[in-house]
Design a protein that fits this description.
By secondary structure, this protein is an alpha/beta fold. About 40% of the residues lie in helices and about 15% in strands. α4 runs parallel beside α5, α7 packs across α10 and α11 crosses α12. The termini are far apart.
Length: about 425
């Protein structure tokens, strides 16, 4: 038998890790409190794009993967990785899921065991927040009795080029011995590990990565607003700038930011700076303001476009392409597409949506949007077609041929009847 690994949380981060660990020879227990998820996993039905049904079935056949809601299955573990959500609550970090996972796994922590936190959070969480919970529940101490570390997740759903196994993994520990244990574990499942000196550095690394993206997306989003007012094609400017081989990284405008990372993680950093140093992180506050208002800007632009065609928003039939927060993925968390759809419904539009990647069970409750298929008839019946998530599976040539008007926030369509963000 191989080492026993427990992965707490079987979502977009935890499930790919569990599958990769099974492939690497670990005996894996995937714990998730969502009974719907566990039933799907038992039936080898994946709800995560990066994990196929066949991969789940193979893991089940190997006898080295168990999905369960019962923490008792964690007994005797060698390594435990916590991959639970870390949302915001009234603008402050909400660590209740980390606390719950820590309290639940603590009784099973034994001498020599290793616990790793992967959930994105503010610097100091592993040492100052999770460690006391584990020590109290286990009666052991870290460092010394057990090993504790932090390794930020770098999962990019839908990215076939950069996967868990070939994306460099930053690792850290409370002390040198803990870092060595964390490095040894991830070294068995990924191609390259990047050790850093402390858990705080690793925690800040993750926030830096996401804040960098958040700020630069806000830059091009605001630029797209001003460029249109100046009569300049921002997409052409972005394409031209992207030819520079140094000193520039391509970011594109869109209807906002979504997922669990960008709308939330930078706020963890600004909260920590404010709480510890008493200063405002002005870049994050400005980026939040710009990106948070992009769905409103999209709705305003669409309303203006319909008005120019002698049609009010109220009563108009609007076909939304994409409800997920990013292309080729089904994650709807914090999706700006959802916010646009809700705003249109509130204004009286008859909104229908197409998104083959999204699982119906994952859509927000109360979303008054009818899901449909992308057909010529559906496109022709719409007063406006709005491209919000640019999935590759959409037939954009059909969209351009059949739709009377397209408002494209992702630069996938061309034509006289296409207006771009």
């Amino acid at each position: 038998m191989g080492e026993k690994l427990v992965v707490i949380g079987q979502g977009y981060v935890g499930l790919p890790l569990a599958m990769r660990a099974v492939e690497s020879g670990f005996d894996v227990v995937g714990i998730d409190l969502d009974e719907w998820r566990v039933k799907r996993l038992d039936a080898a039905e994946s709800y995560v794009e990066d994990v196929s049904d066949e991969a789940l079935a193979e893991a089940g056949r190997s006898g080295r993967y168990l999905a369960t809601t019962d923490y008792a299955a964690a007994e005797g573990f060698d390594v435990c990785v916590i991959t639970v959500p870390t949302p915001l609550h009234e603008g402050a970090p909400d660590l209740r899921h980390i606390a719950s996972a820590g309290r639940s796994i603590a009784p099973f922590v034994r001498h020599g065991a290793t616990v790793v936190l992967e959930s994105t959070t503010y610097p100091g969480t592993t040492d100052e927040f999770l460690r006391p919970i584990l020590e109290e529940g286990s009666g052991l101490r870290a460092p010394g009795d057990f090993f504790l570390g932090y390794s930020p997740e770098r999962i990019d759903p839908g990215n076939s080029q950069w996967r868990l196994d070939n994306t460099p993994k930053v690792v850290s520990g409370l002390d040198d011995a803990s870092r060595a244990r964390v490095e040894a574990f991830y070294g068995a499942v990924v191609e390259r590990v990047v050790p850093v000196s402390s858990t705080q550095v690793a925690e800040l690394c993750k926030l830096l990565e996401n804040t960098f993206r958040h700020v630069n997306i806000a830059l091009v989003n605001e630029l797209s607003i001003f460029a249109r007012q100046l009569g300049i094609d921002v997409w052409e400017a972005v394409d031209a700038a992207s030819t520079k081989p140094f000193g520039y990284m391509r970011f594109t405008p869109g209807p906002g930011v979504g997922g669990h990372c960008l709308p939330i993680d930078p706020s963890y950093l600004s909260w920590k700076v404010k709480r510890s140093l008493g200063h405002d992180f002005r870049f994050v506050a400005l980026a939040n303001d710009i990106n948070d208002h992009m769905p409103e800007h999209v709705v305003r632009r669409l309303a203006l476009a319909l008005n120019q065609r002698c049609k009010p928003v109220k009563g108009s039939r609007v076909l939304v392409l994409g409800l997920a927060y990013k292309k080729n993925a089904g994650d709807c968390r914090e999706s700006p597409s959802i916010e646009v759809a809700r705003a249109l419904v509130k204004l009286g539009a008859r909104v229908r949506a197409v998104d083959p990647h999204v699982d119906l069970a994952q859509l927000p409750a109360g979303l008054e949007v009818e899901l449909t298929d992308l057909t010529g008839a559906e496109l022709a019946a719409a007063d406006a077609v709005v491209v919000l998530t640019d999935h590759d599976c959409f037939d954009y040539e059909l969209v351009q041929r059949a739709a009377s008007f397209v408002f494209d926030t992702r630069n996938r369509c061309r034509g006289d009847d296409v207006e771009r963000l």
